[in-house]
Amino acid sequence: MAWLLAAVLSACFAGITSILAKCGIRQTDSDLATALRTVVVLLFAWIMVLVVGSGGTIGAITPRSLLFLILSGTATGASWLCYFKALSMGDVNKVVPIDKSSTVLTVLLAIICFSETGHLAVKLVGTVLLAAGIFLMVERKAEQGETKTGRAWIFYAFGSAICAALTSILAKVGISGVESNLGTAIRTSVVLVLAWLVVFMQGKQRQLRYLQRQELIFILLSGLATGASWLCYYYAIQNGVVSVVVPIDKLSLVITVIFSRVVFGERLSRRACTGLCLMVAGTLMMAIWS
């Protein structure tokens, strides 16, 4: 059950990523931060390829697998750009639950696309609990005041969730017969190209000279955490059950909520706490009984 442990580690690293990234985009443009983070993730990914010695197998990747890895990388890049844009606009405790709604769509797609119908009733009940929990956590906090950008962060957060769901499904197909570290490195290369393309198209590369050192450190650390999370996640995806791995990975929300309270002072209401408990219950149900 090494893939199960990998899924848990993925959740831990992913939970830390959101906090580090939020600290790094207080003054820094989110698209530029995404591009910088991707450089770190890419270096991390290719170092792991060298360590495991799977680089020599790149020529054996089938055109079909390569296509789906590229598509998965594109979806990931779009998800990242939307996610960190949303984080720069809204509170962590508002953005992250919406992003985690990708779990519901991913589980349903995995059942349809990969016929992962084992313990179907448990998975469906767990998915309902997740959906209910997300609904409760995504609450309107008008009484606390909105950010100057209004509610625009919601659209970016949902865009991130949709792209993240597609990422997992496309990656499952793409890494079939491909060593997981190599697959991660190829996907990250696509993300890097997409992220910097967005930066240069908007002329945001000029902001590099004004980048604060402290924020740069947090951005780089978030990239390291993301790299570690990805390596664990795609190992689990390749060797485990997608409809189980994805919900476990989304438990990173618990870690994020804890750290957002400590670092940013963001509090959860009773409604949001109930939603968090439902999400954890649904995840554990699918992980234990599936």
TrEMBL record:
<feature type="domain" description="EamA">
    <location>
        <begin position="2"/>
        <end position="138"/>
    </location>
</feature>
<protein>
    <submittedName>
        <fullName>EamA family transporter</fullName>
    </submittedName>
</protein>
<keyword id="KW-0812">Transmembrane</keyword>
<dbReference type="InterPro" id="IPR000620">
    <property type="entry name" value="EamA_dom"/>
</dbReference>
<comment type="similarity">
    <text>Belongs to the EamA transporter family.</text>
</comment>
<dbReference type="Pfam" id="PF00892">
    <property type="entry name" value="EamA"/>
</dbReference>
<feature type="transmembrane region" description="Helical">
    <location>
        <begin position="271"/>
        <end position="289"/>
    </location>
</feature>
<dbReference type="InterPro" id="IPR037185">
    <property type="entry name" value="EmrE-like"/>
</dbReference>
<feature type="transmembrane region" description="Helical">
    <location>
        <begin position="150"/>
        <end position="170"/>
    </location>
</feature>
<feature type="transmembrane region" description="Helical">
    <location>
        <begin position="37"/>
        <end position="59"/>
    </location>
</feature>
<feature type="transmembrane region" description="Helical">
    <location>
        <begin position="215"/>
        <end position="236"/>
    </location>
</feature>
<feature type="transmembrane region" description="Helical">
    <location>
        <begin position="66"/>
        <end position="87"/>
    </location>
</feature>
<feature type="transmembrane region" description="Helical">
    <location>
        <begin position="182"/>
        <end position="203"/>
    </location>
</feature>
<keyword id="KW-0472">Membrane</keyword>
<feature type="transmembrane region" description="Helical">
    <location>
        <begin position="107"/>
        <end position="138"/>
    </location>
</feature>
<feature type="transmembrane region" description="Helical">
    <location>
        <begin position="242"/>
        <end position="264"/>
    </location>
</feature>
<feature type="domain" description="EamA">
    <location>
        <begin position="152"/>
        <end position="286"/>
    </location>
</feature>
<keyword id="KW-1133">Transmembrane helix</keyword>
